[in-house]
Structure formats: C-alpha cells, structure tokens
Amino acid sequence: MEVDIKQDPESFTPSGGFADDDIYEDTGELNMPSTEIAQEMWLTRVPKWLWESLATAGEDDEIEIGKLAIWKNARDEKGNPITLTKMFLSQEHKGVQDLPRQYELIKAKTDPDNTYIFTEKDLPGYKPNAYGRLRAGMGGAADGQDQRSGQYRVQKSKSRFRKAIPKHTTLIGAATREYNCIPVPNQEFKNFMEKRTRKAIQGENASTILISGKVDHRELDKAQKAFSGFIRTNQSNKHRQENKAARIAKNDLLDMLQVMFDRYEFWPMKEIKKETKQPEAYLKETLSDIADLVKSGPFASCWRRHPHLNKSNITAVHGKPPDVGGDAEDEVGADEDDGNLEMEDVM
C-alpha cells in the first residue's frame, strides 16, 4: 500500500534548460525582422559641406533630401550604353537652400559586402541624471542625513557624466550599392564655390562700408580734429629738417672753399657755414683735405689753408673775416671806451 506524501516544493527539480531562459529574454532593445529583408539600401558618399548642412536637422526628423532621376538608355562620351543617375536636391530644408541643386551619382567599382544599416532611438522610461546634482527622492541623501539612524554620514562624490540611456536598435536593410555623389559643374556650382572661397579668405568678421553721394568735408575735418590728439606730432623736428641745406658736390664745395681762402687766410667754422650753407660734419670732412685747424694763438679754432695750396699771384688778407653780426665793431668801440674810463686807487 502506497502512502500519499505531499511533495516539498523546494525539492522539486525543474526541467532542463530553465536557467538559460533569461539569456534570450526579449528586452525590446533590438528589433530584427522575422522575414527576409526585401528593402534595398544604397550608400552614397556626399561632399563634406553637403553633409554638414544636412546634419543640422534633428535626429528624429524625417526630411526629403531630394529626388532621383535614372536614364537607363543613356550613352557616355564614347557612345557606350550606361545608366545615368542624377539627384536633384530638395529646397524645402532650410539648411540646403544655398547649396547646388544638381548632383550626379557615379556607381563605385565594387558593391559593399555584408553591410547593413541600423537605426536606433532612446528606450522610453529612461531619464539621465542631472549633471553634478542628485535626483530628488533619494531618501534624505541630498542633505547628508541617514533617515534610518538619524546620524549624518559622509556622502561619496557622484559622477558628473551623463548616464547612458539604453537604445532601441532596428535593422532597416542591407546595402547593395555604393555611389559617389558629385556636384554637376554648372554655373550654379561655380557661383557657390566662388562664394565659399571668398568667405574663406575674408573670414566671418569682414564688413564693407559703401558711401554714396557727396562727401561732407566738414564732417571729415571734425573727425580729423577729434582724433588729432591721439597722435603726438613733433613740429620742431619738422622745422629743423626744413632748415637743413642740401649737400652739394664735393668738387663744387672745394672750389668754393678755395675762393674763400683767397679772400681771407683764416676762417672760423661759423663763417664757413654762413658762406657755404652746408652741414658742419660735411664741411669738416672736406676741409681736412685742403686746410688745417689752428689750435692756439689769436686765430684759434679757425681753419687755414695748406701752404702749398696758396696761390703766388693772390695775396689773402692776413686775418679772418669780420663778424656780420657787429661783434667786431663792438669790440673796437669797447677798446676806445676803455681809454676814457676814470680809474681809482683802492687801498
């Protein structure tokens, strides 16, 4: 006789393969079509400036890039039959309104193998943490107090990185062809490239000021006077520069000095400068060839011609020319007045 004994639930052994059920559990993160993919996908390499304009659209926005036109009975330059494919860019999207409109799609030599296109979006129900802040409702962790013990505890630093959100990935199709998108070299494309080159040379901060009509010179004079104080001008140097005499040829200066030494035997530098109107440094350099500087005696600091250069038929006055300013006359008058002075004896 068999006794009915209730089985213990903990001693029940499940069927094989129960531990592997969670591995293949569908979490909704990947969507693979159950049937064979019938949608054909084309890969196209576009210019960088075209991609940058299309990238301004939102990630979830579906925009119409353009329309394709295919000519199957076209001929190339050699007359061989080809399939001509062109794309006409749509002008509805704001980011591509200033771009060339016509493009030619040239098929690559090899087709892509094992290339698939996926799309993804954020799974609903997930929100990232705020940067550097704790989410509300953390059970008093924001103020550093443990509600269970009523004591304060040290909070560990939280990461400032954005928490990753799980993505929902869907397989769209397999890439069967690859094309290169080349702009058609028409007048529209040439104007676009000229504008792009001009912008690269001038930069973003270039400005053009156009003045039409007559120019009011009074306003220009006012502006010039208003900003004249920003620049310091040295008028004295300007007048000093104007007073400087231009150098004459050395041969002409030597002839002039020879004539002067025929008149007087001794010449001070002051009188030589008045006669010749030449710079002092230039005079000293030239005088050293035909004259010597007297360093002592009554004619000190005067120039005297070399003896071998004196002409025998011309006798120069033994002395120096009188001072035009009247200093010589004053000295003579002073000597005459000295004789009329009354002298007194001082003990």
From TrEMBL:
Gene3D superfamilies: Winged helix-like DNA-binding domain superfamily/Winged helix DNA-binding domain. Residues 1-21, 313-347 are annotated as: Disordered. Residues 326-347 have a biased composition (Acidic residues). GO terms for biological process: transcription initiation at RNA polymerase II promoter. One of its GO terms (cellular component) is transcription factor TFIIF complex. Residues 39-184 form the TFIIF beta subunit N-terminal domain. GO terms for molecular function: DNA binding. It is found in: Nucleus. Its main location: nucleus. Residues 246-304 form the TFIIF beta subunit HTH domain. Keywords: DNA-binding, Nucleus, Transcription, Transcription regulation. Pfam families: TFIIF_beta (PF02270), TFIIF_beta_N (PF17683). Belongs to the TFIIF beta subunit family. This is Transcription initiation factor IIF subunit beta. It comes from Lepidopterella palustris CBS 459.81.
